[in-house]
Specification:
heterodimer, A: mainly alpha, Rna Polymerase Sigma Factor, Chain: A, Arc Repressor Mutant, subunit A, about 60% helix, B: mainly alpha, Serine Threonine Protein Phosphatase 5, Tetratricopeptide repeat
């Protein structure tokens, strides 16, 4: 049995939130990159959940455009496969493409003055084994607050912050994705967190949401 | 030092389930003092929950998978079409060059023959001085200039199109789809309709065009053009598209808008029968119930 040893190199498939390091989809991704319809279809079925989840995390669980953006993200992922050099697992690559697609879409929608609903319905559809409606509502509002801050930040800072908070990437991993020094990423995260705090201070209702985090 | 400067990543590793017992204890102790890490941990947990899939997502996953297969099939077709186009351009150029050569050769031969016919004897032609020769050959030269004329028009238009550069600047299928979706979301329905139509016209058979059929149908329906919408939904269904449930849903609504109860009933029934897991089934059954209820008194 293979034992997975954590690597010190950022280029070697860093572990994902699920702890996965071995890329079980690598061969499938190669076949899909050569436009093999069966491989593309099978690969898409494997990463569709990741893409859907990431798009929902960025847009909001019950946002009307989730399906559209997930489809666009899937096509972007497939189109980007020939450029994929295996610097992370295929699932993470899909997750990253979906994150950027969703962030871009969200900015586009905000620029169009499209009002984003907060997340009240967000959690109603999910399984009932959740803590309590109040806790869930608070979580939904905190997510929405972060999304609002992301909308207002420069691209590179918003991307770093989203990878950190939403996808749970380490600074080393973000630096690899962004092709930037780790100190630059630390700096971007600091600026992002500072902006988030400022937004919280200016929002009287946020004290309850983020009590103890300031 | 501000807690914003904190470089601990224990919260990230905790989220991945990578912490040892000792590290977990260290994290708990660290969190007491570090508001930045508390925030990272809280938001991380919030977003982790938000990305969880639901049972109803099975249909979405299947749709994305099907879309990917169609996309790959259309991508695989594109380079082949590109090669054929390149080859056919080369072939056209070769044909044009050969035709030109043949025409020039034929004219030259014609000129020589005419010169031979006009000349009393080959020896005499060779012996003639230049002015005489020019005089005799002038009509032949006139023929030489006019003889290939019928060939030239057929050659030129065929050679010209490949050289025209604007085609390269046109948006790709994915770009058109994005533009159309953007227009749709922005409320520019007319331009979204135009873009979806352009997508279908320029990239027929592509995954994007297949997707566009259903979107276009929905838009046309919203614009009060149920007949045109019906044509789009039917086009999608006739090729077994990945959005068949959506197309059937649209078709049923289009028939309803047209007042065609039989057509609407058939579309809903097909949706219930062929896609029982579809999110539209509930509405389909309600409408089928209502239609049978309204049909009963009419039958009496």
């Amino acid at each position: 049995m293979l034992k997975v040893v954590p690597s010190t190199s950022p280029d070697v498939t860093p572990a994902g939130p699920s702890g996965e390091r071995v890329d079980d989809l690598r061969l499938l991704a190669r076949a899909a990159a050569s436009a093999d319809p069966h491989a593309a279809s099978t690969l898409a079925a494997q990463v569709a959940g990741t893409i859907l989840g990431t798009v929902r995390q960025v847009l909001g669980r019950s946002h009307a455009d989730v399906d559209d953006i997930a489809q666009e993200a899937m096509l972007s992922f497939l189109a980007a496969l020939p450029e994929f050099r295996g610097e992370c697992t295929t699932r993470r690559y899909a997750q990253r493409v979906a994150l950027f697609a969703a962030l871009t879409a969200r900015r586009r929608l905000v620029a169009k003055q499209r009002v984003f609903d907060a997340e009240p319905a967000d959690d109603q559809a999910v399984e009932s084994a959740r803590p309590s409606p109040w806790v869930e509502a608070m979580a939904g509002q905190r997510r929405e607050k972060l999304r609002e801050v992301l909308d207002s930040l420069p691209d590179v800072i918003a991307q770093a912050l989203a990878m950190h908070f939403i996808l749970g990437y380490t600074v080393e991993e973000i630096a690899t994705v962004a092709s930037a020094p780790q100190n630059t990423i630390w700096s971007r995260l600091r600026l992002g967190k500072k902006a988030l705090r400022k937004a919280l201070r200016n929002d009287p209702g946020a004290a309850e949401l983020f009590g103890g985090f300031e | 030092m501000s807690d914003l400067e904190c470089r601990s990543e224990l919260t990230i590793r905790e989220r991945r389930g990578e912490l040892s017992v000792a590290e977990q204890a260290a994290l708990e102790a660290h969190l007491v003092h570090c508001a930045s890490c508390r925030l990272t941990r809280r938001l991380g947990a919030d977003f982790e929950e938000c990305g969880v899939l639901e049972a109803a997502d099975g249909a979405r996953v299947a749709r994305l998978s099907s879309l990917a297969g169609e996309w790959a099939a259309s991508e695989r077709g594109m380079p082949v079409r590109g090669r054929v186009r390149t080859r056919s351009r080369l072939a056209l150029l070769l044909v044009a060059a050969c035709t030109l050569l043949v025409a020039v050769g034929a004219s030259a031969t014609y000129a020589v023959i005419r010169a031979q016919q006009d000349a009393p004897a080959p020896v005499a032609v060779l012996a003639k001085t230049t002015p005489d020769a020019k005089a005799k050959r002038t009509p032949a030269l006139a023929v030489e200039r006019t003889a290939p004329a019928p060939v030239t028009p057929t050659v030129e238009p065929r050679v010209t199109p490949p050289a025209s550069p604007p085609a390269a600047a046109l948006p790709s299928a994915a770009e058109l789809l994005e533009q159309a979706n953007r227009a749709r979301r922005g409320g520019s329905t007319a331009s979204a309709v135009a873009l979806f139509r352009e997508l279908g016209r320029r990239f027929p058979g592509s995954a994007e065009a297949r997707l566009a059929e259903v979107r276009l149908g929905g838009l046309l329906l919203e614009r009060g053009q149920p007949r045109a919408a019906l044509a789009e939904f039917d086009r999608h269904l006739s090729r077994g598209g990945s959005l068949a449930p959506e197309a059937l849903y649209g078709k049923a609504r289009a028939y309803s808008a047209l007042g065609d109860a039989a057509g609407e009933r058939a579309a809903w029934a097909s949706l219930v029968r062929d896609y029982p897991g579809s999110p539209y089934v509930g509405q389909a059954e309600r409408r089928l119930g209502a239609l049978s209820g309204s049909a009963a008194p009419a039958a009496k």
